[in-house]
């Protein structure tokens, strides 16, 4: 694939055309923002259901909420989720060791943290994408991308083709687009994995509580609504192929039985293996630039980190805001602008990725005197600044 050093915007009066590959958080967000700026956007998503039914819960901190407000969906998110402002640390038996106030990374006019069901957030974003007037094609992938001096020709999996001024790859951690444009970086396992499940919320659960130690490295839960939460257990990564999916509930319940407090109430609902998700922790940070010619990476296609800081979705959403802002400045959509996107994002994203990985590594190494609170505090303070 030939790289193009610059690609000017279309003539005055002619709206530019963009293809967004992937309908997750970053893909949906960039679509909404570019449509608002008058850009013609087509969004393709590989899954026929647009991932509207998968996932358990998600923790959104203030800087993520700030982006959701910019997208115009904050009121729906607020009504669907559960906002709180503190974090509890407990012993494995449930004894509360201390409670810390969360830093309001999105500003004082937004909650510090909000938990919600991941499918509900996806449905809210889907509704906003549909309302934006973007072209939407589900169950569709980009088979080939051919660049020249004037644009990108794309052939789709359904046999059709399109022509675009820019392609934005938001196709996630296993991005086929990343590989197709010659970016060789790949996700690397960090040595940990996580069990997740959605469950009813005990009335006493009004914030995230974390227990370090016990049968797992971390046992935690986050309220996601008036009567729901999601619970998670972090352990050393195992070979997923060696675990029978039919035994997922048994495996998670076995780990959960080592914890007290409200965990027995949660554990009673870990019965259906189809509702349990098991995922390894990965690390990815594409260095140098996040574009090749007219194709640019956003979100997990460019970077990912363990959820130890609950910043994965926030970083992806921030990518969309920064890229949309730059694409709306009237400057040529060339190497200089796309490199400016990378240069603006990389220090912040690197800080989050490295801190998230470090927190997990300290646990894997059994470091008892690690300055975890200090690292978290420094990172969250930095995130109060706008991206």
For the sheet with most strands, the description reads: 8 strands, mixed
The string of secondary-structure elements, in order, is: EHEEHHEEEEHEEEEEHEEEEHHEEEEHHH
Please give the share of residues in helix.
25-40%
- List how many beta strands DSSP finds: 20
Share in β-strands: 25-35%
Radius of gyration: 21 Å
Order of strands in the sheet with most strands: 6-5-14-15-16-13-17-20
| Distance between the amino and carboxyl termini | 32 Å
**SS summary, helix count:** 10
Q: Uncertain regions: pLDDT < 50 for 5+ in a row?
A: 1-12
Rounded average pLDDT: 94
User: Which term fits the overall shape?
Assistant: globular
Q: Give me the secondary-structure category.
A: alpha+beta
Explain the overall architecture:
An eight-stranded mixed beta sheet has the order 6-5-14-15-16-13-17-20. Strands 8-2-1-12-19-18 form a six-stranded mixed beta sheet. Helix 2 runs parallel beside helix 8, helix 8 (312-327) runs antiparallel to helix 9 and helix 9 (335-365) runs antiparallel to helix 10 (372-383). 46% of the residues are buried. A hairpin with a 5-residue loop joins strand 5 (86-90) and strand 6. 31% of the residues lie in helices and 28% in strands. The chain is of the alpha+beta class.
């Amino acid at each position: 694939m030939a790289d193009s050093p610059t690609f000017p915007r279309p003539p005055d009066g002619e709206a530019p055309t963009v293809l967004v590959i992937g309908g997750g958080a970053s893909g949906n967000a960039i679509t909404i923002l570019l449509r608002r700026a008058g850009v013609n956007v087509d969004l393709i998503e590989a899954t026929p259901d647009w991932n509207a039914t998968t996932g358990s819960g998600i923790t959104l901190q203030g800087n993520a909420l700030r982006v959701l407000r910019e997208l115009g969906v904050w009121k729906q998110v607020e009504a669907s989720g559960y906002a709180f402002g503190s974090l509890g640390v407990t012993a494995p038996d449930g004894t509360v060791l201390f409670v810390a106030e969360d830093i309001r990374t999105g500003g004082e006019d937004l909650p510090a943290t909000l938990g919600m069901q991941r499918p509900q957030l996806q449905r809210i974003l889907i509704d906003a994408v549909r309302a934006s007037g973007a072209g939407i094609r589900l169950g569709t992938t980009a088979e080939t991308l051919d660049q020249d001096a004037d644009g990108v020709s794309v052939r789709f999996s359904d046999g059709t083709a399109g022509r675009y001024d820019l392609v934005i790859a938001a196709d996630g951690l296993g991005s086929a687009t990343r590989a197709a444009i010659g970016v060789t970086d790949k996700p690397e396992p960090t040595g940990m994995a996580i069990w997740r499940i959605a469950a009813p919320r005990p009335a006493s659960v009004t914030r995230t509580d974390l227990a370090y130690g016990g049968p797992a490295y971390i046992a935690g839960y986050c309220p996601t609504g008036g009567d729901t939460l999601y619970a998670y257990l972090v352990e050393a990564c195992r070979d997923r192929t060696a675990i029978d999916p039919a035994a997922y509930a048994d495996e998670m319940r076995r780990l959960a039985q080592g914890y007290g407090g409200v965990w027995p109430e949660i554990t009673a609902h870990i019965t259906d293996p189809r509702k349990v998700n098991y995922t390894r922790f990965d690390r990815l940070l594409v260095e140098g630039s996040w574009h090749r010619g007219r194709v640019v990476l956003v979100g997990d296609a460019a970077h990912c980190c363990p959820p130890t800081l609950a910043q994965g979705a926030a970083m992806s959403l921030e990518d969309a805001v920064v890229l949309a802002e730059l694409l709306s400045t009237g400057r040529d959509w060339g190497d200089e602008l796309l490199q400016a996107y990378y240069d603006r994002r990389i220090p912040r994203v690197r800080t989050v990725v490295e801190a998230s990985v470090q927190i997990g590594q300290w646990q894997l190494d059994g470091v008892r005197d690690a300055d975890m609170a200090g690292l978290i505090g420094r990172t969250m303070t930095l995130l109060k600044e706008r991206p």
